[in-house]
Amino acid sequence: MAAALELFSKRDAEDVSIDDVAAAAGASRALVYHYFGGKQELYVAALRSAADRLESRLRPHEGGTSLDELASGLRRYFDFVEEHATGFAALLRGGPANRAGEVGEIVDGVRQRLFRLILRQMRVEEPSPVLRTTLRSWIASVETAGLDWLEHRDVERPTLEKMLVDHMVALLGVAASYDGEVAGLLERLA
Amino acid sequence: MAAALELFSKRDAEDVSIDDVAAAAGASRALVYHYFGGKQELYVAALRSAADRLESRLRPHEGGTSLDELASGLRRYFDFVEEHATGFAALLRGGPANRAGEVGEIVDGVRQRLFRLILRQMRVEEPSPVLRTTLRSWIASVETAGLDWLEHRDVERPTLEKMLVDHMVALLGVAASYDGEVAGLLERLA
């Protein structure tokens, strides 16, 4: 599994064969087929494993304000983006696999878990519509900034990470002018 | 084509058959096959036509500041989202079709054209890395806000549109603190 994840992270999935995975894992082609069934299944399994790893990395470390946690969470997110560069880009650009079905669910699952992590970190039980829209928008913009960064790498990563934290603060500032609850939240965060 | 677009806009593509399209267009099944080849081809053609329509709607009307234009552009964007609700949601969630290949290119093409429209409206020739990342992030967040709105419809559309304009201003404000050129741009926009 680790070997497959490594290969799918570094190369386009089209260019990874079962033979490559078998060779990297020091296993036979038959064994890989036996365990995973086929390349699409192997890709989905690798993706699921990558999603779990990302989630466990993003779990907040204790200490610091919510914004400190957000900053260090973004750093760990971009570590992940950088380590899995090709796979991340291919996946979010549509990828080799059908986005409907399992692959789409894994990607949406990561977004959902990120959303809940942020809510928990902000100590919000049930977000208002304005807060929900704001956080989902921010998550989408982080993903896109990640893709843009992989494509161009013409902004320093620490600068980009800092800018995205500033985005969150600015977007919450906008949300606060539409929703009194968010205004209270923003005071707690500072 | 109009009949196909109408059907794909209102229903999941899985639930649209060539027979449905033929019936809606008052044509024979054979004729639809003759012109489009198959359902996937028909879907791609409908999508391309929808993308062209969206683009022509978003072309700025003259007059007003850039922010006025952005506000009216967002209104036209959400008109489109609302008219093509099911198709829009299915497409951006991964959709029935493989996102790689033609469908992915059409979706990316719309994003690219939106990006260039906004640059032209802002009278920017070549965006700096910070401005590029900011605009792409904003476009992604508008898309996500559109999906979120279709799912929940618990924020009034005019409120959401106004909030997204405020997002743009707030994000450009952040960008300006990283990039002197954006600061100049922001003064011109106000």
Automatic annotation (TrEMBL), chains A, B:
GO MF terms held by the record: DNA-binding transcription factor activity; transcription cis-regulatory region binding
SUPFAM superfamilies for the chain: Homeodomain-like (SSF46689)
PROSITE patterns reported in the protein's UniProt record: HTH_TETR_2
PANTHER family to which the protein is assigned, alphabetical: HTH-TYPE TRANSCRIPTIONAL REGULATOR RUTR, TRANSCRIPTIONAL REGULATORY PROTEIN (PROBABLY TETR-FAMILY)-RELATED
InterPro entries linked to this entry: DesT_TetR_C, Homeodomain-like_sf, HTH-type_TetR-like_transc_reg, HTH_TetR
Descriptive protein name: DNA-binding transcriptional regulator, AcrR family
Keyword set, alphabetical order: DNA-binding, Transcription, Transcription regulation
Domain of life: Bacteria
Limits of the HTH tetR-type domain: 1-54
Pfam families assigned to the protein according to its UniProt record, in alphabetical order: TetR_C_46, TetR_N
DNA-binding region extent: 17-36
